[in-house]
Specification:
mainly alpha
Length: 167
């Protein structure tokens, strides 16, 4: 029903970038990634000053294996808002997929410098440090990550990695 209503909204007002973003999310949830990406591409054409559109577009593109377009989208988001921790964290994911682990670590650290409690960045950087044989650095980030959760609410993945880093 949401998909139908949002499709109608974009037909009624084709220049409404927010309607297109919501439509893209509905399409994404319904398993229509190509259509979702197309709607977000339209949203960024209509509202090229909204970094949120570029961040979400990059996330979708990356999820579909479109690494080069995702890099262009996330770089645009960072150009618009260089203090966005979400943008830097997504850029870290993109460059990680481009097999640039040192740049990925730098980007995740940039996200953490803006938002020290960014759980996704803490987890990602911990995994990178473990993968690259730096368990002490991973341990420091994992302890920070675990501290962001209430006792007993820590994700299993974080606890598993904490165990690996302590060995």
């Amino acid at each position: 029903e949401a998909e139908r209503c949002l499709a109608q909204a974009t037909k009624t007002c084709p220049v409404d970038a927010e309607a297109r973003q919501h439509f893209a999310e509905a399409l994404w949830q319904r398993g229509k990634p190509t259509d979702a990406i197309a709607q977000l591409e339209e949203a960024v054409k209509l509202d090229g000053e909204n970094g949120r559109h570029f961040i979400r577009l990059a996330e979708m593109q990356l999820a579909q294996g479109q690494v080069t377009p995702a890099r262009r989208s996330i770089d645009q988001a960072i150009d618009l808002d260089p203090k966005s921790p979400e943008a830097w964290a997504v850029r870290g994911q993109v460059v990680q997929r481009q097999n640039q682990p040192h740049q990925a670590i730098a980007d995740f650290n940039r996200a953490l410098s803006i938002d020290p409690g960014n759980q996704a960045a803490l987890l990602a950087i911990s995994e990178l440090y473990l993968t690259h044989g730096q368990p002490q650095r991973a341990l420091a980030h994992l302890q920070s990550l675990v501290d962001t959760y209430p006792d007993g609410g820590e994700p299993t993945r974080a606890l598993y990695l904490l165990g690996l880093a302590n060995t």
